[in-house]
Amino acid sequence: MALLSILERLGMFEDVTADLYPYRFVITPLLIIAALVVLYLAYRRGAHTVLLRHRFASTLIGVPALILVLLVGDYLFSPLWERSHLEEASPLAVLDVAPGSSPSPASNEAPSSSAPIQPKVLQTGMFVGADEFHFGRGDAHLIQTGANNYVLRFEDFSVRNGPDLYVYLSEDQDGKTIQESLNLGKLKATDGAFNYEIPSSVDVSKIRSAVVWCRQFAVQFTHAELMAN
Known about the structure:
CATH architecture of the largest domain: Sandwich
CATH superfamily of the largest domain: Superoxide dismutase, copper/zinc binding domain
Number of strands: 10
């Protein structure tokens, strides 16, 4: 219950940071300056002598507190600044004819029923942010690569980073409802173009949107409504 209470409080913190996020480049240096001023005033008032006089108690309390602050701070704040980029080849890319070879002459024979299916885009959509704080942009494509093989591709994609981001498919157009059975895995990068294999158990005819979802806080960052081409 204590852990649940902490997570709920962190969820409330998420709402506060949403309002402060546009001013992060101003707030961050101000917080650093404020922290240095507090440390300086504490030093001038002799706080260091008290800590040295009670070394064991200071260490017993201070070290765990410092570790907790660093872990929580890194988890909550570092994603706001960290970016990653990934470029994966599109399933739509067709291999060129090998050098020195020539294409086969046209034939009047009917194509074989066992011929492989050429990759094609079935549905596409544009990512939009959930709000001013949780934003994203780019394109999402639902691509058929085989008889029962499908890929979700992100192109020209960019999203505000955050902790515990995952990619989901949703049966809702706005992506508000997600199911763990439609979890495609962790977000590969904040920027770029990359692919997600869709399990064969997923009925793609029911899919209406692609979603980037923060599992820790149960918050949507961005979604793309998928529509037939």
